[in-house]
Design goal:
single chain; 607 residues; TIM Barrel; 6-stranded antiparallel sheet; 28% strand; globular
Amino acid sequence: MLKRITILVSALILLTVTVSFKEKKAKHTFKFSETEFLLDNEPFQIISGEMHPARIPREYWQHRIQMAKAMGCNTISVYVFWNYHETEEGVFDFSTENRNLGEFIKIVQDEGMWLIVRPGPYVCAEWDLGGIPPYLLKIPDIKLRTLDPRYMAAAERYMARMAEEIRPYLITRGGPILMIQVENEYGSFSNDHNYMSRLRDIWVANGIDVPTFTGDGPTIKMLESGTLPGSVVGLDSGSSQSDFDLATKINPGVPVFSSETYPGWLTHWGDSWWARPDTVELLQEVKFLMDNRKSFNLYVIHGGTNFGFTAGANSGGKGYEPDITSYDYDAPVNEQGQATQKYLALRKLIGSYLPKKDKLPPIPDSIPAIQVELIFPVRFTSVWDYLPEPVVSETPRTFEAYGQNNGFILYRKELTGRKSGKLTVTDIHDYATVFLNGEYLGNLDRREAINTIDIPESNVSEPVLEILVEGMGRINYGPQIHDRKGITDSVTIDGEKLLNWKVYNLPMDRKFIYDIRSSGKTVNKPGIFFKGDFSLAYTGDTFFDISNYKKGVVWVNGHNLGRYWNIGPQKRLYCPASYIRPGMNEILIFDLHMTQPKPVGGMTTQY
């Protein structure tokens, strides 16, 4: 009898908790009229700050969200990068490191903020291939961002899996998610409304029952090509009343908001200095939006870092333009999470519109930064002593054709017949060092449109030609996004094609780096790993100064901090405190040109 009563009481408690939870989940509604957003049937101005969980260490998610809240934002906007969650075909990861999207969403809700989700399948975002998985480029004639059934099969699989992650957090289910973007800036790419409608239908079919929106530049061509009837119009950016009027004219019956108001801008390798947009103009733009109660999203409030090989590239009038590792973006919250003068100015402006009795929350304390004393690395091993078994290939092919997404590939061939002359690589994507019989000849550089080099005569009967190719960021914007890496066409000497290659995959991924061991040899051939140990009494964020090195990649305790290049403007790589530990630590540097190590230290600022 007592057992039965206990069961009944437990069931009653469970029922009470369930009912209470359901009541809590049914608390809010979000919809729109023809001109404005409505939260719980009341007009609502979205003041959003964009940040990307993939670019921020998981340990700092709450801090960065609190920074946005303290600047006056009521909403967070996030890009989700498809290729960050599906690195291999059909294998998804929404749990490890900073991929746990559900945890990020919970923090947003715990902080009393709303969320806009921008899941792609294409996002741009200065991210490798705009978030689309490189494995799709194994298909020679695939057409990305179209109804090509091969692309759509992969996109639908991702969207269905993505829907599982976000569905419990929709506002219709008691969560913070207000809206979801259908695709991104499609009007800058194409004009197939059937494709856009299909994407929206897929979200709906997967239970995504919140409003949808598009995002495009405020031009007739872009808006006519990229908007969808019934979906909110996002403007990149909405800077004036005429921008909003144009959007309303082209796609009437829905609200218009500035989906990307730019407080900063991106920076490329080789730029003379970091991008620094005018703050006065920004404040005027935000004042216009606040005065007229226009909803807007600051892209980005905090940029973070393109750790690993995630940085993208542009290809405009200047040719190929790879992005730097830092995504500081001159954002209000800098790469290390600190409030800038721009942040303080925006906080003051946005805060001035609060009711007199209301105040913004205090600005969170900054994360401590530490200086790491000079480290003196030594030569550890070389890429030449750590080559895997080669693939024999009649013609040199792309990274993707060999099943590799990022890193480096070595193409090696014994020259017969024509052994000297002008070597032409058509086309090199993106940077290569060239060797003959182990001697360095020079480099090829897509950025500088350098794809030829002279091969001198050799007294070796069958000279060995080696081309070590680095794949940098894939183009993430515009029509040239089908950006395969490596040797993308052919190699010739004086017009004669070179056939029969040995190809060595060097992805330099986590497993590759974990398995690497010292060769015990002294090698003077460029392509060397340098290793240094350093001891810390306590941890903090730091910026490793790599200005003594030329071009390559840095790992700290196995964490890939990203690419460096002495052409700048970036000279220091951000290392969060979570990547280092009290006691002994390890830094590993792979440089394409250096043969002797140089000191490296950790600084407290990014430049």
